[in-house]
What we know:
The complex is a heterodimer of chains A (115) and B (110). Chain A has 115 residues and is mainly beta. In chain A, strands 2, 4, 5, 9, 10 and 11 form a six-stranded mixed β-sheet that branches. A five-stranded antiparallel β-sheet of chain A has the order 1-3-8-7-6, with no helix packed on it. In chain A, 0% of the residues lie in helices and 58% in strands. In chain A, strand 9 and strand 10 (100-105) form a beta hairpin. Chain B is mainly β and 110 residues long. Chain B has strands spanning 3-7, 10-13, 19-26, 32-39, 43-52, 55-58, 65-70, 73-78, 87-94, 99-101, 105-109. In chain B, strands 2, 4, 5, 6, 9, 10 and 11 form a seven-stranded mixed β-sheet that branches. A four-stranded antiparallel β-sheet of chain B has the order 1-3-8-7, with no helix packed on it. Chain B is globular and about 40 Å long. The chains are: A mainly beta (115), B mainly beta (110). The A-B interface holds A 6, 9, 32, 34, 36, 41-46, 49, 51, 90, 92, 94, 96, 101-108 and B 6, 32, 34, 36, 41-44, 46, 49, 51, 57, 88, 90, 92, 94, 96-104, 106.
Amino acid sequence: xxxVTQLGSHVSVSEGALVLLRCNYSSSVPPYLFxxxxxxxxxxxxxLKYTSAATLVKGINGxxxxxxxxxxxxxxxxxxAHMSDAAEYFCAVSEPQGGSEKLVFxxxxxxxxxx
Amino acid sequence: xQTIHQWPATLVQPVGSPxxxxxxxxxxxxxxxxxxxxxxGRGLQLLFYSVGIGQISSEVPQNLSASRPQDRQFILSSKKxxxxxxxxxxxxxxxxxxxxxxxxxxxxxx
Lengths: 115, 110
């Protein structure tokens, strides 16, 4: 069964600094990988997804992530943090090629952006 | 375009009372539907998912059940709520890949 590990439950950066949120996955077949963002008391919004095409995926709000099969990683980055990026971020994996579109999430990383 | 509706937004229920949370999707057919529960520090726990009418998979044993009486309707229920059922419940749909979420229901069992 697929699983996701997000390293660091809390990450704090200064405004304008690089954002790096880490995600490692486990999957027995080629996975689909996703990053979602959640603002307080709201649902989740899709930031970007990898579905076996280009390994560097660009998403909304200036975020991007790179799929690295050898490292089983899908880390999320943004060159310059903005105050509005403060939120909780979730990495997720599914295995549609294995017959399962069930989406399994990591425990989330809360991003704080300091002025 | 597709939309997902989830209600109510907040709910306070006494222990032992029943529960019914409803989720409907518009603008798509035969989606996969999901119920997740979110607790602080524990991420999103998948409770149930459904690939079609009447087809429900339960991920964890618990005090809850789910039903899908229509293609785009997914209901989360309980006959008797426990204090531990408190949390933020999210409904989602997917169709070949990405999942899209409702705005969630904050359930407090008192």
